[in-house]
Amino acid sequence: xxxxxxxxxxxxxxxxxxxxxxxxxxxxxxxxxxxxxxxxxxxxxxxxxxxxxxxxxxxxxxxxxxxxxxxxxxxxxxxxxxxxxxxxxxxxxxxxxxxxxxxxxxxxxxxxxxxxxxxxxxxxxxxxxxxxxxxxxxxxxxxxxxxxxxxxxxxxxxxxxxxxxxxxxxxxxxxxxxxxxxxxxxxxxxxxxxxxxxxxxxxxxxxxxxxxxxxxxxxxxxxxxxxxxxxxxxxxxxxxxxxxxxxxxxxxxxxxxxxxxxxxxxxxxxx
Length: 271
Fold this sequence. Notes:
By secondary structure, the chain is an alpha+beta fold.
């Protein structure tokens, strides 16, 4: 039987670091308790039963709660997403989702729907690992952008995608009008014109694509091909970076990894 100070929890390990000589400090996202920091005693020792508790693992844990940090007693790995590290694009997208989650969730406070969303996106990224390189890059970027839009919404910092400033009227991009532009002012939202304070301009197709990202599925053509070329998804990722810096104080560091022209990306462009 568990002691009164023991409890069971389920969560996703977002971060793992050293603690003392042989222990680890874990940051978990739990559906019921939000962000939790736990000590895993002896987890850095060879053959430790707690050694499997690391980043990108969905686990069930038995926790002993004392006066300070809770301590892991037992760990069962429900699913590991560590295969995402096999590809730079999937790893960067996963890190973006995990870092953004840590910026959004207050410690000890749950956000309903957030854990299932993150797990769903990680599973979708994992399904891309066998895809052709150019397709993988585009799909991983799209999942990162859509996941970011939806995480920000759950966290209370959602983009006002359907509201035109300053009037507050519905924002309806006129697809086909290539002269139309929408301005992003990170502190305020979207202006359906060219605004002198804009940090980014979107055309009608880009704005319409962004608006569709609040839906469950990625926008696709009838053929199943993803809508929007890779440079458009990169622009939308930049937009999220501006929004995060304004409303969260900083943007996840993994945005640079997602956005940069890595050697692998350069080879894809010239191949």
